[in-house]
Amino acid sequence: MKSYRQHLLFLAVLLPMLSSSVQAAPRETVTLCSDKAYWFPFTFLKDYRAEGLFVDMIKEVGLRTNTRFVIRPANWTRCLRLAKKGQVDGILGASYKEERAQWMHYPSDATSGKPSPFSMSLVDYVIATPLGSRYVFKGDSSSLPEPVRVPRSYSIASDLGKTGVEVKASFASDRAALLSLVKQKNGSAALLGSIANELAVNDGFLKGQYQIQTVKLKAKDYFLTFSHKSEMTEEKQGELWSALKSVRSDEELMSHFYESYAGKDG
User: Fold this and answer.
1) Residues carrying CATH 3.40.190.10, the chain
2) Which of 27, 241, 250, 258 could form a disulfide with 68 if both were Cys (CB 3.0 to 4.6 A apart)?
3) How much of the chain is in helix, strand and coil states, percent to nearest 5?
4) How many whole angstroms separate alpha carbon 69 and alpha carbon 189?
5) Looking at the domain 28-120+221-259, which fold is it?
6) What are phi and psi of 50, to 5 degrees?
C-alpha cells in the first residue's frame, strides 16, 4: 500500500513538470523576405506590412509546426540578395530558376515540369494587347507584338527573351507596364493574370483600355524557398514544405482565404 501511494506521489510531481516542459518548448523563428511590389492577391504591402494570400498560408503553416515566421518586405532584387547572403532564411514565393537553385533550396519536385503540390500556388501569366488590336495569341511566344512589356521583378522576362522577341523589363509593376501599353498603343504586356483582370475592372484609368488574350502565356509554380546559408535543418525545411502542402490541400481553408480577397484591390 505504501509503495502504491509513493508511486502516485511520484506521478503527481512528475506530470506537472512534464506538462510545463512541453508548454515551454520554444518556437523556432524563421525569417522570410517577401516582394513588396503589388502582387495581389499573393503578396502586397498594407500599412507597411506584408499581406496577402501567401502570408495567410505561411501563418497557418506556423500554427501547424510551432514555427514563428518573421516576414520582411523588400524589393525583389534585395530579397534575392538577402537570401543569397543568408541574411534571411528564405523567400516567400519564388519561381524556380536554375541559377537560384545554386544558392536556394526548392522542394525536390520543383524541376519535374509538372505542377508541384509543395508549391505555394500555380500562378497564371497572360498577355495584354492594346484595345482594338487584331493580334490573337495562340501560344507562340515568338509571335508576340513587340516590345513585350514585363515588370522588372518577373522571371518570365528571361523566358520570353529566349524566344527572340524584344522584351522591355524596366517597369516597376504590372500597372506601370499596362500604362505604357495603353499610352503607346503598341506591342504587348506579359502580366500576372489576377492583376491584369483586377485592373481591367477596378482601375479608373485602365478600365476598358486593353484586352486580355484568351490563351494564357504560362503557368508557373511559386515556392517557399530556403537559403543554402540558413541554419535550418533539412528536416525542418521538409516539415515546413509538408505543412504547406497540407494547408494548400485544405479546400475549406483555402476557399476562406481566397474569399477574403474577392472584390478587393489590396
Assistant:
1) 28-120+221-259, 122-219
2) 27
3) 40, 25, 35
4) 35
5) D-Maltodextrin-Binding Protein; domain 2 (3.40.190)
6) -70, 130
Look at 45 and 265; give whichever has higher pLDDT. Answer: 45
First-to-final CA distance of the chain? 69
C-alpha closest to that of 60 among 236, 256, 244, 261 = 244
**Confidence class of residue 230 from pLDDT cuts 50, 70 and 90?**
very high
Of the options 3.40.190.10, 3.40.640.10, 1.10.150.120, 3.30.365.10, the CATH number for the domain spanning 122-219: 3.40.190.10
For position 255, what pLDDT does the model report?
Answer: 92
Question: Do the beta carbons of residue 31 and residue 89 sit within 8 Å?
Answer: yes
pLDDT band at 198 (very low <50, low <70, confident <90, very high): confident
Cα distance between residue 252 and residue 256, in whole Å: 6
**Which amino acid appears at position 178 of this protein?**
L
Torsion-angle region of residue 52: left (phi > 0), alpha (psi -120 to 50) or beta? left
Q: What is the mean pLDDT of residues 21-26?
A: 55
Indicate the pLDDT class of residue 265, thresholds 50, 70 and 90: low
Q: Quote the DSSP letter at residue 108.
A: T
Backbone angles phi, psi at 58, to 5 degrees: -75, -30
Instruction: State pTM to two decimals.
Output: 0.77
Mean per-residue pLDDT over the chain, rounded: 89
Task: State how far the Cα of 134 lies from the Cα of 137, in Å rounded to an integer.
Answer: 10
Grid cell, residue 19, equals 506538462
Q: Residues 96-121: what's their mean pLDDT?
A: 94
Measured over the CA atoms of residue 196, residue 198, residue 203 and residue 208, the dihedral's sign is positive
**Residue for cell digits 485602365?**
206
SS3 57: helix
